[in-house]
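Support reply, case 0932

Customer input (verbatim):
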Amino acid sequence: VSTQSTGIQPLTAQPLFAARPLHVTSVVRDESMEQASKFIGAGCATVGVAGSGAGIGTVFGSLVEGYARNPSLKTRCSPTASSAFALSEAMGLFCLMIAFMILFAL
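Our regenerated output:
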């Protein structure tokens, strides 16, 4: 069947929105934005140092409380407190190391 004889026009696809040409621009590095993001990242990384300080305070506060309740357990409590102090201090130092890496190595 011919479209001329029936008078029906074929459908054409119309875009739903206007197409714009693609413009490619070069990436401009903003040094001040990069420096600001480094400072923000380093600040976020050093929050863990405060957690380390709180952990050390909790460990030694509990140690003193344990000594006050039962002085005869001093030999059993000291090694545990020393290892808990070392773990808490190590986590604080790791956070500080990451902060310095963000600032000076990236």
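We compared this against your earlier run and they match. Two observations from our side: The radius of gyration is 33 Å. The chain has a mean pLDDT of 84. Please reopen the case if you see a mismatch on your end.
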